[in-house]
């Protein structure tokens, strides 16, 4: 599955940080089923809060967009976050006795604060491209992880529902559309050879920083 030209280039520029993210011990633990449940739940509670801020950040994309097409694409991602991903968290946590009220009341961990506020700040002080570069590792990284784990995970891993959500058709379509949005937005603002511009390196750096913050976020679930 290809998530577009910019993602492919930014991912390569992130170097070893990308593998640290998508092949993290937490991810491998979900694949082979050895990830301790308590760590997974701690991650999931934090991730619920994370998704609230990420929905806000994609909504900020609507504010920063230049065209109706860009606004629609951002709105579709907000919809996927709120109506596809967050119900997964509510379902799994509910089955473990963690109520929606407890999810709402959870105190944000420093890793969560750092990542979500970095992305929001990228959008507040930067433009649409700054925001998209900071948002990209989140959606596209989980798409890549889901697709790989669907092939490689142990058949009896207790994390199958999580894997199926991110490997599933709806999430994968959201990834392809987000990747296409990034390519269109970059081409509209920076032209057909953006790699030659100084601005490109700033976008690569932003993508790499968000990738490092993803690595730190997995740490919420492993000792
Ligand atoms: C930390 C994190 N990064 C990415 C995703 C996928 N939207 C997520 N749910 N949580």
Automatic annotation (TrEMBL):
GO terms of molecular function? thiaminase activity
Question: Which InterPro entries does the record cross-reference, listed alphabetically?
Answer: Haem_Oase-like_multi-hlx, Thiaminase-2/PQQC, Thiaminase_II, Thiamine_Salvage_TenA
| Record bears the keyword rRNA-binding | no
- Looking at the record, the residues that make up the Thiaminase-2/PQQC domain are 14-218
Q: Per its UniProt record, what Gene3D superfamilies does this chain match?
A: Heme oxygenase-like
Q: Which Pfam families match?
A: TENA_THI-4
Keywords from the UniProt entry: Hydrolase, Thiamine biosynthesis
Q: What is its EC number?
A: 3.5.99.2
**One GO CC annotation:** cytosol
- Superkingdom of source: Bacteria
User: Which pathway is this protein engaged in?
Assistant: Cofactor biosynthesis; thiamine diphosphate biosynthesis
Q: What's its catalytic activity?
A: 4-amino-5-aminomethyl-2-methylpyrimidine + H2O = 4-amino-5-hydroxymethyl-2-methylpyrimidine + NH4(+); thiamine + H2O = 5-(2-hydroxyethyl)-4-methylthiazole + 4-amino-5-hydroxymethyl-2-methylpyrimidine + H(+)
GO terms, biological process: thiamine biosynthetic process; thiamine diphosphate biosynthetic process
Q: What does this protein do?
A: Catalyzes an amino-pyrimidine hydrolysis reaction at the C5' of the pyrimidine moiety of thiamine compounds, a reaction that is part of a thiamine salvage pathway.
In the record, the note on similarity to other proteins reads: Belongs to the TenA family.
Q: What is this protein called?
A: Aminopyrimidine aminohydrolase
**Origin species:** Paracoccus alkenifer
């Amino acid at each position: 599955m290809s998530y577009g030209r910019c993602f492919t280039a930014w991912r390569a520029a992130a170097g070893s940080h990308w593998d640290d993210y998508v092949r993290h011990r937490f991810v491998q633990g979900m694949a082979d089923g050895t990830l301790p449940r308590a760590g997974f739940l701690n991650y999931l509670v934090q991730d619920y809060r994370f998704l609230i801020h990420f929905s806000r950040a994609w909504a900020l994309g609507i504010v920063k967009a230049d065209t109706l097409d860009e606004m629609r694409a951002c709105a579709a991602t907000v919809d996927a976050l709120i109506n596809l991903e967050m119900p997964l968290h509510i379902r799994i946590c509910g089955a473990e006795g963690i109520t929606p009220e407890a999810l709402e009341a959870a105190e944000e961990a420093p890793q969560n604060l750092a990542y979500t506020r970095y992305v929001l700040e990228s959008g507040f002080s930067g433009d649409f491209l700054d925001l998209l570069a900071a948002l990209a590792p989140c959606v596209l990284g989980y798409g890549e992880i889901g697709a790989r784990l669907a092939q490689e995970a142990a058949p009896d891993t207790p994390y199958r529902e999580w894997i199926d959500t991110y490997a599933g058709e709806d999430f994968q379509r959201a990834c392809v559309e987000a990747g296409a949005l990034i390519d269109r937005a970059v081409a509209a603002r920076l032209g057909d050879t953006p790699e030659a511009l100084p601005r490109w390196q700033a976008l690569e750096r932003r993508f790499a920083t968000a990738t490092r913050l993803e690595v730190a976020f997995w740490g919420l679930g492993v000792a």
